[in-house]
Amino acid sequence: MDQITAPFRIAADPWYRPVADEVALYEAAYAAKMPVMLKGPTGCGKTRFVEHMAWRLGKPLVTVSCNEDMTASDLVGRFLLDAEGTRWQDGPLTFAARHGAICYLDEVVEARQDTTVVIHPLTDNRRVLPLEKKGELLRAHPDFHLVISYNPGYQSLMKDLKQSTKQRFGALDFTYPDHAVEVEIVAHETGIDRGLADKLVSIAERARNLKGHGLDEGISTRMLVHAGGLIAQGVAPVPACRMALVRPITDDPDMRDALDAAVTTFF
Q1: Does residue 248 share a domain with residue 200?
Q2: pLDDT tens, 150-163?
Q3: Is the pTM of this model over 0.85?
Q4: Which of 109, 114, 126, 259 is the most buried (most CB within 10 A)?
Q5: Which domain holds residue 233?
């Protein structure tokens, strides 16, 4: 069993800076076999949190990046043809349920609703997964845990989770950390000094105030880490910020000028 799940185990601690009681709440949810939903903007640490918790609990982690073309078979599995005939290939959800892994469905709202309903039997007291094509009713391993994430800022009438899905999960809200915590994260992840990290976070805070006023999303913590990484490689702060913070999030000339001005204010 260990050999089967070994590729999905996280060997080194993915450093995560708790901002509240999310670690304790997740551990309690895992012990209670309660599925967990992570809600928050892109690049705020949801995926890193799941990786850290998998490492902390010593469990394998199976991650699925959801998309609108993903079918139920992509999650559950399908029969394949090979030289010896047909054989069944577990999908990532089935693999995790069979072998006691944490299954993380990233940006689950991107998947079609007729695909996401396959998780329903795993998210209540039954904890089973019907493999209709195979004629098997898979009972989830006791260590199996299901985690989904999505960005509420992107939801719409066409892309949102059904209430019948939402109410099967406990939810943890994520957002960008407070200033001092975000400075600590950027400095730790990139190796730059806290003075530089403080300036990067200040630029991000200004940009986040423009969300809904010309920007669909603000500058994320992930983007700050990218900028800090460039600076750590010897790139001057202004071009590093333009490449990692400004150019990726907008093509509007006026908005770029406004963000460039924010960068030059601090550098």
Answers
A1: yes
A2: 888 765 545 778 88
A3: yes
A4: 259
A5: 179-266
